[in-house]
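SAMPLE LOG
Freezer: B-3
Tube label: C17
Construct: single chain, 179 aa
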Amino acid sequence: MTFRTPAPKSSSFRVPSDIGSVPSARHRVVAIVRTWDLPLAEDTVETLELLAGEVIANAVVHTGEGCQVTMSWDGTRVRLEVEDAEGCLLPQRAPADLDEESGRGLLLVAGLAQRWGVRPTPGGKAVWFEVGSCSPSPSHPSPAARESDLSFGGARQPVAVAEPGCGVLSGSRAHVTAT
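STRUCTURE (predicted):
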């Protein structure tokens, strides 16, 4: 029996500004991935669900508006982008005490995603992450990363890209300038 990698796929949906809509958006992400019938381990799907909830909640809470969720599969990884209308400033992790209930979402993204970052969009910014069963070397980013993260309207733009273990959340920002 020959194994075939599923063809590239994508899906997009809008999340309303109500924080109560985050759980259903998170479940919708999982439902979409399951309909795609991808070769992903169950723990990868669970990680996708957790991280989707974090970045969607951040967009809704910090902008007070809805957001656009776009998912794609490039044959290797699932990429999830959450676009909001809050300028293209990089998200910042606020210091969180041990007893606080929030402030650790981006730390989870940085620790669990294979890659993540933020890119400017015409109306604000998009925070994205990738999870999957395979991990190409950082010197060979996925096709989705090459196309959307390193250019913005054909102009040279700083874009934050983080690999696991990078210090993006510890105060030192990693910037890539598209050429």
